What does this fold into?
Amino acid sequence: MNPIDPALATSLCGIRLRNPVIAAAGAFGYGVEFEKQVDLGALGGLVVKGLSREPIAGNPAPRLLETEAGMINSVGLQNIGARAFAREKLPALARLGAAVFANVFGYATEDYVEVVRILEDHEGLAGYELNVSCPNTQHGGIYFSSDPALTSEVVSAVKRVARRPVMVKLSPNVSAIEPLALAAESSGADAISLVNTFIALAIDPHTRRPRIGAGFGGLSGPAIKPIALRLVCQAARAVKIPVVGLGGIATGEDAAEFLIAGATAVEVGTALFWDPRAALRIAAELGGFLRREKVASVSQLVGTIQL
Ligand SMILES: Cc1cc2nc3c(=O)[nH]c(=O)nc-3n(C[C@H](O)[C@H](O)[C@H](O)COP(=O)(O)O)c2cc1C
It folds into this structure.
């Protein structure tokens, strides 16, 4: 395992991270699949793919599409369910030494609560990340993430059962991010993370059909970075809880930009599709950036944007 670079070590709502670069949900499976290729213990942390109450088979193929500057996906949150995850994957993850976060989703508030309840009975997790970019089927399909009252409802309910820190992952598909960030904070969220993917569409002009099996998908990767940075900056200015920034991060300097915009830590998603070691490389590059800029520690970058 690589030695810890003290300039990179940081903490996120009381969770110690070797470095501020975390593998994002959905881009790194359950983590353990990469054990042979990646020194998982050297990661700042990893977020496992979204977990639901029951297993979900996911959407029809094609599920992924490479675009000019990123990717569109509609995997449909395929997963083995929280119970099987706890039984089959978590014991190996718990031995890693990296902070492991469970990404949690559902279609009703009780779904989120139930997943967290199941996971609370098991050791090995540092915290939860609630993916609120899901339609609430009990409220006519309105996204939890687009309505401050629904965001508040799910966060408060989860906080009542969670012993571990709860991070709320916000959607960028809103006209103003501040009300959602504030709703998460005032309902007890320990941190927020943003952004999830941007709802997108790709069409094959010959068949006139969407290029993604499910129709619409989520855009991620370098194409979204400037918009994600703006949203992270606005959210960080609105709340006092830590913000985790993501969206198109592919280099150490990208990560530095998110920290400067106000993020305490960052996540890396799409970049892991072309290089499973990207999170480690980005952390090393961030270390190099700090040395070149003569910044003693990563926390000294956070929120230093000169706007
Ligand atoms: C194939 C794929 C699957 C994803 N699955 C999840 C998921 O299960 N839960 C979640 O909160 N976000 C999920 N995301 C969103 C990413 O975690 C991330 O928020 C988004 O892709 C933006 O970051 P990036 O540009 O670095 O990929 C997924 C993204 C991709 C590309």
Observations:
- Residues 24-27, 49-50, 71, 73, 75, 77, 103, 131, 169, 196-197, 220-221, 224, 246-249, 268-270 surround flavin mononucleotide (CB under 6 Å).
- The radius of gyration is 18 Å.
- The longest strand covers residues 45-51.
- Residues 278-292 form the longest helix (15 residues).
